[in-house]
Every structure is written in C-alpha cells, then in structure tokens.
Amino acid sequence: MKGKAAKSILLSVLVFTMVFVSACSTKNNEGKEPEGSSAPTSKTETSSPEETAVSYDPLGKIDPPIEVTAVRMLDSTTKFAEGDSIDKNAWNQLYFDEFGIKLKYLWVADPTQYNQKFNVTMASGKLPDIMPVDGTQFNQLVEADQLADLTEALENYGTPLTKELLSKDGGLGLDSASFGGKLLGIPVNPGANDNAPLLWIRTDWLKKLNLPEPKTMDDVFKIAEAFAKQDPDGNKKDDTYGLGLDKLLYDAVFGLQGFFNGYHANPQIWVENEAGEYVYGSIQPEMKVALAKLQEMYKAGWIDREFGVKDIEKLIQAGNAGKLGMFFGVMYANSYFVEGKKLDAEMDWMPFALPSIDDQQAKPQLVFPIGKYFVVRKGMEHPEALIKMLNAFHNDWDKTKYPLTAINQDGDIAKWVYALVTGSNPTQNLDMYTRVSSALEKNDETLLDPKASGQKIFYDSLKKWEAGDSEGWMYARIFDAQKLLHDYHQSNGFLMTKYIAGPTPTMVEKGSTLEKMELETFTKIIMGESSIDAFDEFVTNWKNLGGDAITAEVAKWKASK
User: Fold this and answer.
1) Number of compact structural domains in the chain
2) What is the pLDDT of residue 17?
3) 3-class state of residue 84 by DSSP
C-alpha cells in the first residue's frame, strides 16, 4: 500500500538514526559520567566509623556481582551475528563487566505472543526482577502492589543524561509512572508532539484563487468553498473538494482532530472541566457545534460526498491527482504527495497553525504516547540495576572498548535491540529543528550533530530547496511543520490528554464498542443521515453503555496520583 510504504519510509528518516546513537547525541559531553570506577562497589564508604558517607556511582559495579532475571519480547526476524544470541551478546557482557550484573532471561517471546505469556507470568505470582510492560500490565501490577519504588534508585544512580532525557517531556512520563509519591516504573516516551494535528493547504491554489492564508476558522470555510466551487485545477469540471477526510474520522492524516480543536473541542482525549473533573472530550458541547458546521459543509459540497467509504489510500490518490485542496494532519503529511509534486511542479502543500473559531488560541491535542514501562518486582535487592542498564543505553562508551559495530549497528544487524533496557528522547525532532536551524542561519554544517544522520539529511535537502531543486521540497515542508511544532512547544500551546495511563478495565472491555458507536454517529451526522440532535442521544448512550464506568475509573486513577 502506497500510504503505508510512504509512512514507513518517512518515519525511518524522522527517527534520524538508531535510537541508541540519537540518545547519546544529546549529551554534547555535558554531564558525562566516568566510564567505570576504581571502587569495587556502587556505594563507597569513608573510613570514619563515626560518620559514614555514601557515594553512588551510576556506572560502577555492584559487588559482589548479582544475577538479574528478566523477560522480554524479541521479534522473530531479529538478526544475530555468528556466535551471538539473546543470551550471549555484547550488551549482556557489558552489563556484567561494567556493573556486575549477570542477566538471565526466564523466557523470550515474539511480540505477538508476549502479552499472553506475560499475563500467565503475572497470574503465577513469580515475576522476574526486571520486565518491560505495557500500560495495561503496568496498571495491573500497580494495583496489585507488585512493583518496587524506583524513586531513590533513579535519584541516586541516574546519570545526568538519563535524568535529562526522562524530564524532557516536562515530567509527563515520570508523572504517569508515579503513584502516592512512588516512582513505580521507568517510562519509554517516544514523544507526542509529532502527532499533533496541523492544517495543510495547497498554497498554489490559494494564490491562483487570490485567497489569503488562513488565520481563522472562517478563513478555512471560505477556502474550502472556493476549492470546491471555483475550479482551482482549471479543468472546467466540478471535480475538486475543499476539506479532505477519510472514513475513520480520526486518522493521523486526513483526520478531524485539528478541525475540532479549532472549536476548542477535543475528541477521544480526556480534558478537565471547570469543576476540576476529567471528562471525555467527545461528549462535550463544543463537539456538537463543530459537527453541525461539518454537516453544513458536507451539504454544501465542500467535503467529498463519498468520504464515508474512502480510506487513507483513496485520499492519497486524490491528493496526488490534484483533486484535494486542504486537510488536517500530522507534520509529515506532505510526504504522501511527492508523486503529485512530480506530476505537477506547481503543487505546493504548506502547513499552518490551527485556526480558531474565536479570539482564543486553538490548541492541537496530544494523545498519551507512552506504551511501555520498565519495572522492577517489589522486593528485588538491587533495583538500581534497572537504572544502571538505562544509563548504559544512553552512555557514550569508549569506542575502542565498545565499538558501535558491537553495541549499535553492524551492517544490517541492529545490535542495539539486544539491550534489555532502552530509552528515548521525546523531543528528538524538536532538537533536530533547533540544531538544523542554527546551522542554516550561520551557514555552518559543523553545527550539526555528527551522530544524528537525519540532521545532515534535512540540512542538505533544505540547501537544495533554497537553490531551486525540487528534490528538497518534501523535507522543506516537513521542516516548516517542525517550526510550527517548535513554536507550540515553546509557548505551551499543546493540549495533552489529562488521562496519562494505560486503558482502564472498562476501557478494555467496552472501549471498542463505544468508539464504533462514536464513529458511526458522527459520520451519520456529518453526512446528514442523522440530525445534529443525534449527538445528544449519543452522549446518553455513551454514558449508559460504559462511559460512566470509565469516567469513574479515570476519577479513581486521578485520586491515586
């Protein structure tokens, strides 16, 4: 499928480089920890018997060495060099040599089998020392009081870089893992900002029809009407439409989140009401107002009459064929139209900040991005082992001792995946934007991070675009989108869902049914098959069919924080 292929290719670029290297690249030699210690233990005591001071070495050995049990998922397609295995590799050896940690896997499972096998392990009550879990499993272990408090372990043993990366999301991940003042897991946050909705418009059509760039939602309506009615492709046929959306309504590309955000409505996330309660955004009054406008736009022909049966592939085809003029989508959305750009050199998709229906700024909504935590079973003697492993993943090791071909990438073999504990940089793309912007401004590519290959890709592509080479167009417009996201981030302009945890029990049981009802109801309202008052019936049904129970569970979770 073209859409899936395009997304896969682009995201592989936007990751910029292997996770391990990109995490290390943020260090810039600041806060670098010594790569070992002459002290034989993690804690070093003074010689004074009256007064004992303890120093903690984040990269020092635990003495005597300890055995740490673990479970993990491992894709069946994972490659190993000759002589290597998941039980025998450079990472396991590093854990032992540097930290005195002998890693023993109780079992390893393919991602398709991991959850089932782990659920059996939870039921048995025989948990390993360290384990990766998803949000649902994390909630269950927290509820069962089975997890160790990692607060002191992180504070005492986390390197400056580890702590920096864990805090770069403003504390979102650590907050999601904290209950009653206890840190019960280490979150892996890939970042949420890149999934924020933006407004994408064919600006060549704007110029052709002498329309201004959008500042308000009223501007959006006028543009949608003009694109649908004023023949922007010039073929004297009524075959273009203004606002593109697909049948799923909430896709990352061609979704309606950005449109609703323009009305200060927030579908499918949890928001705080005036009473301080967390409520489901899709059932709030602002949604009804926005749906009424969409119904009006559909009736007027500004929205494709057949959107209810069209998937993302059909929208991509329409865009490349020059029949689509505007949509709401993520920062890389223009990448789907490279083919169209080759067919029509004048085609130009540009991103814009979300317009608002009034004088209040529209805030792009963000979904909770964390789906993985590393946790330690309650009672483990050395919970700092987890933190040391995380330090190891982020540490800039001596390349003569640990060459990148051993612990990162060797040809087509990704060796960083052998590490049990991995980390992330939640603002990686924002960091890229800042670094590349500085290099462009000063015309000095030495300002790029040499370990983050994606920065050079963007820099070179933007230079091509400046020189008039259309090959740089895709990256240039993504870079424009990154600027918008950077500005939102700097001004605290995003709206993160208030419920930052895995699914509650009723979400697991009733969530898919409620989402299906929401999709069907809203689609019928937009297409005029149901009156706008069907929204009120939907709210009542949502509450009765599980929504009230979910709201109560969210309130209980909020109280636990």
Assistant:
1) 3
2) 37
3) coil
Write the CB contacts of 411 (distance below 8 Å, at least 6 apart in sequence): none
Read off the CATH number of the domain in which 258 is found: 3.40.190.10
Residue 160, both tokens: 């400056």
**Does the N-terminal peptide bond of residue 426 adopt cis geometry, omega within 30 degrees of 0?**
no
Helix (H, G, I), strand (E, B) or coil at 313: helix
Q: Measured between alpha carbons, how far is residue 436 from residues 128, 362, 439, 514 in Å? A: 43, 28, 5, 44
What integer pLDDT is reported at residue 55 of this predicted model? 76
The reported pLDDT for the residue numbered 517 is: 98
Residue 22 within any structural domain of the chain? no
- Residues 391, 353 within the same domain: no
Do 244 and 332 share a domain, yes or no?
Answer: yes
Cα–Cα distance for residue pair 386/32, rounded to 1 Å: 19
Q: Under a CB-based contact definition with an 8 Å cutoff, are residues 353 and 489 in contact?
A: no
pLDDT digits (tens, 9 = 90+) for 403-427: 999 999 999 999 999 999 999 999 9
> Residue 57's domain spans which residues?
27-190+370-418
**87-102 residue pLDDT tens:** 999 999 999 999 999 9
- pTM (global) more than 0.85: yes
The Cα–Cα gap between 519 and 521 comes to 6
Q: Render pLDDT for 294-339 as a digit per residue (tens, 0 to 9).
A: 999 999 999 999 999 999 999 999 999 999 999 999 999 999 999 9
324 contacts: CB under 8 Å, gap ≥ 6: 202, 240, 241, 244, 315, 318
Tokens 């635990």 sit at which residue?
Answer: 62
Mean pLDDT of the chain: 91
Q: Are residues 56 and 159 in the same domain?
A: yes
User: Within this chain, do residues 41 and 167 fall inside the same structural domain, yes or no?
Assistant: yes
Rg (CA), the chain: 26
Task: Report how far residue 338's alpha carbon sits from residue 470's, in angstroms, rounded to the nearest whole number.
Answer: 10
Phi, psi (rounded to 5 degrees) for 148: -80, 145
- Over 493-540, what HEC string results? CCEECCCCCCCCHHHHHHHHHHHHHHHHHHHHHHCCCCCCCHHHHHHH
Strands (DSSP E) found in 304-458: 326-329, 349-352, 365-366, 373-376, 409-410, 413-414
Mean pLDDT across 65-80: 96
| Residue 561 binned pLDDT confidence (cut-offs 50, 70, 90) | confident
Cα dihedral 516, 521, 522, 524 sign: positive
More confident residue, 227 or 449: 227
CA distance 240 to 462: 31
Per-residue confidence (pLDDT) for residue 53, from 0 to 100:
55
